Amino acid sequence: MNALQVLRQRLPLARPRIAVILGTGWADLALRVKDPLRIAYAELPGFPLPGVPGHASDLVWGRIGGHELVLLTGRQHTYETGDANSMKLALRTLYEWGCEVLVQTNAAGSLQAHIPAGSLMVLTDHINFSQRSPLIGETGAERFVSMVNAYDAELRTQALSAADVLGVKLQSGVYAWCVGPQFETPAEIRMFAQMGADAVGMSTVPETIIARHAGMRVLAFSLLTNMAAGLSNEVLSHRHTLAQAQAASGPACALLEQVIVGMEI
Ligand code: HPA
User: Fold this and answer.
1) Does any ligand 1 atom lie closer than 6 A to the CB of residue 200?
2) What structural domains and CATH numbers belong to the chain?
């Protein structure tokens, strides 16, 4: 059986329309899901087995507000294998299952003094600095997918309204993707700032490309866990990222829940 067949067999009545990838700091959204049902990626052929501390590897089906949805509690990063396409099968499976919208979340470093650590940002666009693509080797004209409006303008407007309802400050900005796993140099960060980036991180961009190619609408959020390299005296480390993400996780998950409750699709 393939992953879609397993999902249809385990959840024959399920009709999720929204898929959410939970990045660092966003895991507690799963606690806000009603009637959750968990399926380990290990049971879904082709789903990745993330190996980063702080990242889980389950699919959670359930409801938030009036929406039926699926959460992916972990993603495999390009820095784990060198492959930019490790989430391809999982995302295409969810699209075929009926998910028209992909909501992505991540932890990122801030390049902007007015977006301090602890801030939340909705992505308006990205810079694929690594120039790696999960679509290498695809055939057919669909591979030449437009990346204009990659982060759906209508969904972004809805997200900003949800933030207003909650009274949470939600920044907007451009996310630059570095493969990692090393953090950036201060010189790289100065270059990204000149290029127009507001945040930098090691994920999200490949999944956005896969989702746009499949035909999903994408909405994405960053939790800024630190000022990027050279912009403060903080010593960057994964432990620091996890600690900062944990500290800001409450408001982040409250916002994401409100965004999903209010989502009109
Ligand atoms: N750089 C890259 N990825 C990150 C950062 C950063 O500063 N913070 C959290 N994820």
Assistant:
1) yes
2) 14-133+151-261 (3.40.50.1580)
